Every structure is written in structure tokens, then in C-alpha cells.
Amino acid sequence: MTPHPITLAIHGGAGAAPRGGTRPEQEAARRSDLAAALRAGHAVLAGGGTAVDAVVSAVRVLEDSPLFNAGRGAVFTQAATHELDAAVMDGASGRAGAVATVTNVKNPVSAALLVMRRSPYVLLCGAGAERFAAEHGAQLVEPAYFYTDERYAQLERARRRHRLELDHGGAARAAREGAEEETEYGTVGAVALDEAGDLAAATSTGGLTNKPVGRIGDSPIIGAGTYADNASAAVSATGVGEVFMRTVAAHDIAALVGYRGWTVQRAAEEVILRKVPAGGGRGGAIVLDRGGALAMVFNTERMYRGVIRADGSPEVAV
Predict the structure, then answer these.
(1) Beta strands 302-308 and 7-15: pairing type?
(2) Which residues contact 56 (CB under 8 A, 6 or more apart)?
(3) Which of 179, 190, 200, 212 has the fewest Cβ atoms within 10 angstroms?
């Protein structure tokens, strides 16, 4: 049997450029971390590993970086805490695992993998998810590990803006602007195709800046922000999660590929450029099929993204 063309793609969040632009050294650091994530996932695939292990390896690198809204460097809740969400799905078996609102798991995507492989469940949240992760060997950290000065300053800006808008009756606008600021460097994710022809997807996020405690977005919701099926495609999304949940965006993209026979590019454009905006949403998605065809579509100003194929040369774009 001829091996499939191993492919790994990642994203590091979609959104508007920050006011005042991005410092060149910070931009270079983000690109470097994206390339490192691509190389980590590729090493798994090149060694004959599974697509599931590849996407988890790639996402872990981005969770460990303070420059993305996942793991270390995640955004703050209204209570100045961190609540992290992640999911992984295996396109070969249809199995999936996810965690939500965890506060002390160093790599939430690893906890999601444990849920998939060591439990009959799909989604665990809060203290129960943390206890399960600890019992199965996930690395735990003090909540202060996730703190960064940049994200705390972002929370303070969101709080000031929210108070100002409330004084003028503009709470809805304040929420939208806070969400857009959050997605400047948002949710991270990966999709992969291994040499056996199996697909997988993984997504991890800190959610929205200044979000209510207990809010869960689309990333850990299978079919909303994360989905994989060998019969169609692997999808990882980024953006304002409420719209991605209402449109079941990740599954919708895969369904257009599987049921209608659309290319991943056409399917992604239909959902990300038409359906999500029609619902008031902003964001993007990366989509990969079993032939190695890849789409990276976003309706925002930019999306951090990258791809690496069999030759092992990472390609990164903003």
C-alpha cells in the first residue's frame, strides 16, 4: 500500500491586527514558535506516528508558548483567573476527548487526549477534569504559571472599555470589541494526515478576554471548533466561539466535503466566509482531507497559520 502524503497544518488564531501594530521581535517570536510546532508534529508523522499524536505534539508547543491564547499566555476571565479548553478527535475511529474550564493542567490538549484514550467519555470540565487528568499522569501547575503581563494588560483594557460602554448603554458593543481584541492572537489548533491515511484534529484555547467564569467556547465542543472524519476532513477553528457553536461550523465544513463532495477550499469558504459572518461571527479554520488537500480560510484581517509536508520544510504565514 502506498503511504499517504503526510501533512500537518496549524493555526495560532485569527483576528484584527493590534492597535499600533506588532513589535518586530514579537512577530518573529510567534513565527518561530509556529515553525517549532510544525517541526514537532512532523517528527511524529515522519517517524510513522499517528495523526492524533502529531496534532497533540504540535498544539503542546503552542500551549507552552506565552505568545498564544492557549496554555501559558491564555487570556484572563472577569475574575482575573484562567479557564482553559481543549479537544482532540481521531478521524479513523471517530473517538474524541475534550476538557473545559481547567485551571491547573499545563497542557490541556494532553488532558483531552487522556479523556479520549482512557475513558468512555468525550468532555470533562472543571474540577472533575482536573482530577481525571491528575489521576492519569497529566502535568499540573500552579495557576500563576499561565500569567503574562501582556494578557493582564489586555484584561485591564477590556474592563475599562466595558465600564465606559456600560455607562453609555453599549454593553453589547463592548463585548464584541473585547472578543475581537482577544482573537488577535487566539485559539491554537492543528490538523494532520498520517502515512496510514488517517486524519486528526486538535484545538486549544483560553477563550475570550474578560469572559464570565464558567463560559465555554467552541474549541472543546466536537463539531463546533474541532472535528475529524476520515470520510471527509479534519477541521480546527478559531474565532468567537458562540457563532461557531450555533452554526456547528467544523462539522458543517466536513459534511460539505463528505456529503456533497466539495473540495476543502470550497467547503471552508462556504462556512467561514458566508455562514459564520451571516451569524455575526469572525474567525477562521484550517481543513485537511485524506488526499492532503488543505484549506486555510479566515474572514478576519489575518490568521497565524502554517503547514509542513513530507519534505519537512515548515511554511508559516500571517
Answers:
(1) antiparallel
(2) 88, 109, 110, 113, 202
(3) 212
Cite the active site residues. Answer: 187
Alpha helices, DSSP H, located in 22-170 = 24-46, 51-64, 108-118, 126-135, 149-167
Q: Cβ-count burial of 10 within 10 angstroms (0-12 exposed, 13-18 middle, 19+ buried)?
A: buried
Q: What are the grid coordinates assigned to 151, written together?
A: 494578557
152-18-84 Cα angle (round to 5):
45
Residue 57: φ, ψ to 5°: -60, -40
Alpha-carbon distance values, 82 to 106, 151, 156, 225 (Å): 12, 11, 15, 20
Query: Per-residue pLDDT tens for 46-93?
Result: 999 999 999 999 999 999 999 999 999 999 999 999 999 999 999 999
Structure confidence at residue 184 (pLDDT): 52
Q: In the chain, which residues have pLDDT < 50?
A: 169-183, 185
Q: Other CB atoms closer than 10 Å to residue 132's CB: what's the count?
A: 20
Helix 171-182 and helix 149-167, axial crossing angle in degrees, nearest 10: 160
HSE-CB at 261 with a 13 A cutoff on CA atoms is 0
Domain 7-317 fold: Glutamine Phosphoribosylpyrophosphate, subunit 1, domain 1 (3.60.20)
Per-residue pLDDT reduced to its tens digit, 194-225: 999 999 999 999 999 999 999 999 999 999 99
Tell me how far CA of residue 260 lies from CA of 3, 218, 255, 267, in angstroms: 26, 24, 7, 9
Query: What separation, in Å, do the N-terminal and C-terminal C-alpha atoms of the chain show?
Result: 37
